[in-house]
Specification:
By secondary structure, this protein is of the alpha+beta class. The chain is about 15% helix and about 20% strand. It is globular. Bound molecules: iron/sulfur cluster (SF4).
Length: about 90
């Protein structure tokens, strides 16, 4: 399961890009990290290195389909964010 990248939280430090052993993260033209979904192998080394908690571990049944998400999109999907984890609002946390 790939991580969720939160656009507004990313400060463009590049730590997640540097640590990923599969080159599954890239910086876009605005210096925001974005996921290359097909390359992700669920390594999770990107999550703890992010200084702003912009890289989230999603719920087990959430399918990551976008390279980067906005905070509004995350809210609209019914997710809440606690630290580096995201949870469904209705489900147990
Ligand atoms: S580690 Fe976090 S802040 Fe740094 S580029 Fe990656 S997502 Fe952005």
């Amino acid at each position: 399961m790939p991580p969720i990248i939160v656009q507004e939280k990313c400060i463009g430090c590049g730590a997640c890009v540097a640590v990923c052993p599969y080159q599954a993260l890239e910086m876009d033209e605005d210096n925001i990290a974005e996921l290359v979904i097909d390359k992700c192998k669920d390594d999770w080394s990107c999550v703890p290195v992010c200084p702003t908690e912009a890289v989230l571990k999603p719920p087990a049944d959430f399918k990551v389909t976008k390279r980067v998400y906005t905070e509004k999109e995350i809210e609209q999907m019914g997710l809440i964010v606690k630290g580096t984890n995201a949870f469904w609002k209705e489900k147990k946390e």
